[in-house]
Amino acid sequence: MRGRMMRKAARGALAAVAIAPVFGCGPSPITSTRIETSIETTFANLVELQVSRLRLPPMRASNFGVTAACRKQAAASNAGAGDWVCALVWQGPDRRMLRDTYDLFVTTDGCYAANLEGETFGGPTLKASDGTDVRNLLYTFEGCFDVSASGDEPD
Amino acid sequence: MSPRGLCAAAGVEWSKLVAQLKARIVLAACVVGPFVFAAAMRVQSSVPSDTLFGRSVTESGFAVPLVVLGFAALWVFPVVTSIVGGDIFSAEDRYGTWGTVLTRSRTRAEIFAGKVLTALCFSSAAVVALALSSVAAGLLVIGPQPLIDLSGILLPPDEALVRVALAWASVLPPAFAFTALAVLASVATRNSAAGIGLPVVAGLTMQLSTLVDGPDAIRRLLPTSAFGAWHGLLTEPSYYGPTLHGTIVSGLYLVVCLAVAYRMLLRSDIGG
Hints:
With about 160 residues, chain A is an alpha+beta fold.
């Protein structure tokens, strides 16, 4: 009796595994548009916070006008989890246009770790105007975006 | 099945459980572990930078429970929830005590419900103990500084505490799903090693499968996805889709596993 139930359970599990890919063959929800929207917001908020921590004249996140262009590394499709590169163009506190590039590792749940290419923002720690060491929030940071919401198509 | 019978069965199971050394050790580890982690972070210079909020762990005490939550989702929750759920039925086989448990005054349904309720209560107690201990360790060892969330917004301490509490609450449904998986393994195999080991191996396999960029629907069908749904609660604006989806999936695992386990128990050739 128990063997029969086990066989039924096994058949059910196999059927579920067989059916699941049918429903999962749609496009990946991890798209450049979603990554760009997320990193633009997170980066701008972190710049605002960094300016405050360095005791520089305060600025609002929206004043930095961050725009991002992201592409997936070494892949035919510009969608899905893995390694991405994002170029960020933004207006610095001195009104100059700046360009920085980040290497991203995006996980399947829509979270990413962004690491700065080069040393344009200094190292992992910075000196505030009063001489104290503060963590460089822009050197490496994390973010997440919703992969469950219906939204843009992969590009 | 009468409520009185259920309470009687659950009461007996709970008294048996609290007398077990393993249950006390697990709960003690849930309380002590976060303090050891927070103290280690305080005295050393390196931080767990490959984990969400790992870089903030020495700057804000509210990052400690979130880092612990990230670690726990990998293997601690499947282990902690299986230790009782995976043994609570098979222990009767091991000791040959089904004949004394299934007396005429209590039905199999009441015994089943009492054991499942006890396993679920223990899983809840372990998760709550780990959550409270992590928050206490973070606040006492590191301090109640504001927390930078996953959108780069600085959360004041009271807001950070609410988000941390919600994040921990969101892992209760998948913890219950793994408890039900362990109960099913315990009933099906009648072996405690398999009852505890199978859900843990299943959990690790599910976690590894989420690292592969496969079909999103398969990832969403796994209860382990719900362990990471709290990330959406730490962004601006917060998104709740993964939490809602993970709760529904966990509920389905809970119902299906318990239904199959119950049918197996009813049909099994045990004493009583």
